[in-house]
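Below is a filled-in request sheet from our internal design queue. Each sheet records the structural input a requester submitted and the sequence that came back. We keep these sheets so that new team members can see what a complete request looks like end to end.

REQUESTER: design group, bay 2
PRIORITY: normal
MODE: inverse folding
CHAIN LENGTH: 297
BACKBONE (tokenized):
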């Protein structure tokens, strides 16, 4: 199977930095440099403006059937509904950008450019706890609920592994990527994948973190995002080199490259990816202010 470009969605006024596919509403939500949070219904070419938060949106997270959270460049977090009728609730804790968000039970976890992890009660929307993890930016979070682990990738090049039982650091992969880790994701309970500014894709085993199991020069420039297909053994990577690449999670062999020329992909950096729940479609957002929609043939 190969991914084929189905259409492009236009509406944002600048670079698009974040996107998620909402399993509840089956809609895509995107946010970017224009400060807009936009929803896109299935098979629609027109988006709906949900909110203008007035600052660049770096991260989006689904909270429940009715609510989302977004993180901004200034370090603000907005709790808001999935409808434009709802008024966003603004919260401030981080003094630098919020690069990623994750949900664990009744907590929203925020990854700050100030090196802190914030733990927010999703019911009261108040911060309950924080951890000063590093002096560097925390760029990516990935939860492994089955193994009770949280991985945090940082701009200093390190990956921290924390226990979700007490949020203590149980291991550190030092200098996993030089100079910065940009994206991480768990493939299974013992396998962590990482991508960085060095354009390398690496596979790590928690049982042996001294060196990567695989280390690939996967792109020409920074790997901005890794995203696993929910149904197939396929990993998608998005890069500053303007390409999306698909990899076999079994072997890390390259399956397909989606580039600007041959695949009619993006003409600028590809920043974030989102698979549909059934794994048949891939959305990609870019600095060229467009969203590409790819379908398996």
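RETURNED SEQUENCE:
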């Amino acid at each position: 199977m190969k991914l084929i470009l189905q259409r492009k969605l236009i509406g944002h006024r600048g670079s698009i930095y974040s996107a998620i596919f909402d399993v509840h509403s089956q809609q895509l939500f995107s946010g970017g440099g224009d400060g807009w949070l936009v929803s896109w219904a299935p098979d629609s070419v027109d988006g709906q403006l949900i909110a203008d938060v007035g600052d660049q949106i770096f991260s989006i997270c689904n909270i429940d059937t009715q609510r989302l959270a977004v993180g901004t460049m200034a370090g603000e977090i907005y709790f808001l509904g999935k409808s434009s009728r709802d008024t966003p609730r603004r919260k401030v804790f981080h003094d630098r950008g919020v690069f990623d968000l994750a949900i664990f039970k009744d907590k929203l976890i925020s990854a700050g450019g100030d090196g802190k992890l914030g733990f927010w009660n999703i019911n009261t929307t108040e911060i309950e706890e924080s951890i000063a993890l590093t002096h560097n930016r925390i760029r990516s979070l990935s939860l492994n609920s089955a193994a009770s682990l949280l991985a945090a990738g940082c701009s200093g090049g390190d990956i921290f592994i924390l226990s979700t039982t007490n949020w203590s650091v149980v291991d550190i992969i030092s200098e996993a990527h030089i100079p910065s880790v940009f994206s991480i994701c768990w493939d299974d309970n013992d396998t962590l994948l990482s991508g960085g500014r060095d354009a390398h894709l690496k596979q790590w085993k928690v049982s042996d973190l001294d060196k990567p199991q695989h280390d690939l020069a996967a792109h020409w420039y920074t790997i901005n995002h890794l995203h696993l297909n929910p149904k197939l053994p396929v990993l998608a990577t998005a890069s500053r080199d303007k390409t999306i690449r698909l990899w076999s999670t079994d072997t890390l062999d390259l399956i397909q490259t989606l580039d600007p020329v041959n695949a009619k992909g993006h003409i600028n950096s590809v920043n974030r990816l989102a698979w549909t729940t059934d794994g048949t479609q891939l959305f990609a957002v870019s600095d060229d202010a467009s969203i590409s929609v790819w379908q398996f043939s």
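SHEET NOTES:
- The CA atoms of residues 5 and 263 lie 7 Å apart.
- The chain is about 0% helix and 55% strand.
FILED BY: M.R.
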